[in-house]
Amino acid sequence: MKNEKTTNGSYTPDMIWEEFKVTPDALLGAKILESSVYLTRKCNLKCQYCKIIKTELPLELTMEQWIEVMDILEGLGVRFVNIAGGEPTVLKGLGRLISHINNNTTLAHSIVSNSLFNDEKLKEMVDAGLKAYVASIDVMDGADKRLHDIRKSSAGMRMLERLKGKVPYLCGNIVISARNLSSVVEVTRYLSDNGIWVNVCPVIWGRGDKWESVEEADNAYRLTNEHRERLEDIAKRLVELKRNGALLLPTESYLEGLPTYGPDLSWKCYSETEPTSPSRLIVDADGSLMTCINMRGEVAKRYTVFDLKDEDTYRGFVEDWWEDAKRCQGCYWSTMVTAKQRQLMLEEFKKEVLKGNGTQG
Ligand code: SF4
Predict the structure, then answer these.
(1) pLDDT in tens, 38-56
(2) Within 13 A of 271's CA, how many CA atoms are on the CB side?
(3) Is a pLDDT exceeding 70 seen at residue 18?
(4) Which domains are present in the chain?
(5) Distance between Cα 128 and ligand 1 center (Å)
(6) Which end of the chain is more exposed for a tag (fewer CB within 10 A), N or C?
(7) At 255, which helix (H) or strand (E)?
């Protein structure tokens, strides 16, 4: 379970290589390895900080169209699709979508949910063969120091417990903020000891388009310079946990970058000087292609995922995507950072093959 930059600057394989059916042939044909789809922007909650639900789209894709989207992703060589929202479980036909992915594609998939759905929906997803479930785990200093309390305090945690033995991969997502620095490591250890994978990400605020029209993260939650020392300690302890086999999804280099980029949010998914490809293909609820999980950008006005059936259009999209991305000040989304690392692996692999340095392995 390694995903690290070696001393010579190349990347070694990680979970995606091991678990997501990545073969040399699949890699050679792949344009991009990961995708995230906003199945809907609708939600059964209205969280103050959530900007997804604040952008309403006149028309969202139907489930039949989403099924077609999965085939398009497969054609692009995508290995992993994350199904998010809004709240994906508010839509009818989610089971059909999961069955289609399992039976007609080679994509690995996960669903991110707020865990507020009924037993019928739960059965529909499990029966369809849901592979990975991601729930938010609310971690706050104080209450969650009594670790068994997170079971009671978090709908996500309760759902993860219920899904044990029914869904192969369970994952808790923890947002690191100024309000939970004392608890993050202990909660991570607790979840991992209970067979639950953990993703961590610093609180991201004030980035992307339309931020000015939504409420920014409360100042009390933001990470600032004054938190760097504590973040260094957290990063060190998380890396140690990971090295000792904890079920931590982010790579070591991501964890090590937390003290630098967590407060600044200055990591960039693109190069300012050289054309860069997107590392995750983000599809909005209306089928538009977004700049990233945070921004619709100019590309959303020009491209939908259905345009990518045409090879030349993909090239044009990548060029326009870079122009969009260059306007961004940065972030430190863990999914985007790890996706970038995997995209670099893909590019390096292809270069090696082109040089004739071995196609096997
Ligand atoms: S740096 Fe890239 S991934 Fe991060 S917010 Fe900007 S465009 Fe999105």
Answers:
(1) 999 998 887 766 777 777 8
(2) 7
(3) no
(4) 30-44+56-111+279-361 (no CATH), 131-267 (3.30.750)
(5) 33
(6) C
(7) helix 252-264
Q: Residues lining ligand 1, CB < 6 A?
A: 207-208, 268-269, 291-292, 294-295, 325, 328, 330-331, 333, 336
Contact at 8 Å (CB) between 11 and 4?
yes
Token code pair at residue 8: 């010579």
Other CB atoms closer than 10 Å to residue 321's CB: what's the count? 25
Question: Which position has the token pair 């309403």?
Answer: 56
Torsion angle, CA of 249/254/259/262, rounded to 10 degrees? -80
Backbone Cα Rg of the chain? 20
Give the Å distance between the CA of 324 and the centre of ligand 1.
10
| Best mutation site among 32, 266, 292 for ligand 1 pocket (most ligand atoms within 8 Å of CB) | 292
Cα–Cα separations (whole angstroms), residue 136 to 114, 155, 171: 7, 9, 9
Q: Give me the phi and psi of 297, to 5 degrees please.
A: 70, -175
pLDDT, tens digit (0-9, with 9 covering 90-100), for 203-234: 887 554 444 444 555 677 889 999 999 999 99
Helix (H) or strand (E) holding 172: strand 169-176
